[in-house]
Amino acid sequence: MPKNSMEIKVLVINAGSSSIKYQLYQMPQARVLAKGIIERIGDEKAKLSHFYNGKMFCLEKKVENHQEGMDLILDTLTGKKAGVIGDIGQIGAVGHRVVHGAEEFTGSVIIDDKVIASVEKFVDLAPLHNPSNLTGIRAARHNLPDVTQVACFDTAFHTSIPEVAYMYALPYEMYEKYRARRYGFHGTSHRYVARKAGQLLGKHKYELNAITCHLGNGCSISAVKGGKSVDTSMGFTPLEGVVMGTRSGDFDPAILFYLIEKGYDVKTLNIMCNKRSGLLGLSGISNDMRELEELSREGNRRAKLAIDVFCYRIKKYIGAYLAVLGGVDCIVFTGGIGENSASIRGQICSNMDLFQIMLDSQANNRAVGTDVKISAQDSKIAVFVICTNEEAAIAKDTYELTSRTKR
Ligand code: AMP
Q1: Pocket lining: 189 vs ligand 1, CB cutoff 6 Å
Q2: 137-149, pLDDT tens digit by residue?
Q3: Does domain 8-153 have CATH number 3.40.50.300?
Q4: 93 closest CA partner among 25, 5, 38
Q5: Which is more confidently placed, 127 or 254?
Q6: Cα(337) to centroid of ligand 1, in Å?
Q7: CATH of range 203-390; options 3.50.50.60, 3.30.420.40, 3.40.630.30, 3.20.20.370
Q8: Is the pLDDT of residue 399 over 60?
Q9: For ligand 1, is residue 334 a contact (CB within 6 Å)?
Q10: How far apart are CA 158 and CA 235, in angstroms?
Q11: Which protein residue has the closest C-alpha to ligand 1 atom 20?
Q12: In a designed cystine with 233, which of 81, 97, 221, 319 is the match (CB 3.0 to 4.6 A)?
């Protein structure tokens, strides 16, 4: 740790529509003091799961709204039963995950009324996420009014994508009037694993060329050139790109016009594309990759089809990004599937010798939940499994912005 670096505790908040995830970090060491989640906010009974000092504390009670949720988090962090700090005065800064920062936010920022007004403006672009993120910000500001609060945007890393990659070939006024363009998401994760890969290769962060594959329930692939995102598979919304747990990814939009003519309404089609498609839609069974892998091994044809389409599409994106980047130093797998499934990584990287991508099958099979190289010695392009940690990235940004203002 550098001399004179400021020591503070940073609370990271990720507020969803009916949940709040939190982690309390000791910075700059990035040591997690406690973490947890409140689920089912607004229901009959909400559930708090709180992890601290190697122990777990659970509680079920009615939590009416996000403000009550934030009260419960702060009470738990400071409480006698499972607390890790004496009082909330020990929290030096709060970092918030915010999904959509549109073209305005190219990095994390200290939250003020102007930032809140912008996040509100972008609710239109992220109607499912920005409102919940805002309720989290408002609740934290209410409880900790004198504490620096920072917003970290999922879209920020992708604001370096050039016009040629973010424009859709729709009438230009759709962009001018409605800002209909590629924004990309999962940016905090892509940036985090790209920086980690740079460290593993001993490269400066702005020298790394990589393809990062975030494969979880939501999936996206990014092309990273000189440490910056130059293309990504998710688009105007997270629906575009590769196949996901319940999202379709790319398909011909004319299918939607055709289905509208057959009597489907817009709301039903929206739900179909976002919640009933992807691995779930193809298999007709589940969006859970573990379950599909098991069923596929037992001979279930639709489970196998879902996995095959999933891997095929990712391979296709990797090929496209290799062409866009003109070669890369490495490919990174992250997210629940990317970090844990050797067989999916193996299937995606199969028959890629032509591109100088070869896995070490033993290293691949061993790699679970660690940051490790899984490519063979003679593979020109390194392949890594890197465990993403969006919360740590948010804590770091929050710490850096806070210590800059306190200097
Ligand atoms: P995430 O959204 O990053 O939490 O990832 C969730 C996805 O990761 C789900 O499809 C899980 O089935 C998948 N996943 C988690 N562990 C494994 C595993 N060991 N093997 C295959 N898929 C896994």
Answers
A1: no
A2: 999 999 999 999 9
A3: no
A4: 25
A5: 254
A6: 4
A7: 3.30.420.40
A8: yes
A9: no
A10: 10
A11: 341
A12: 221
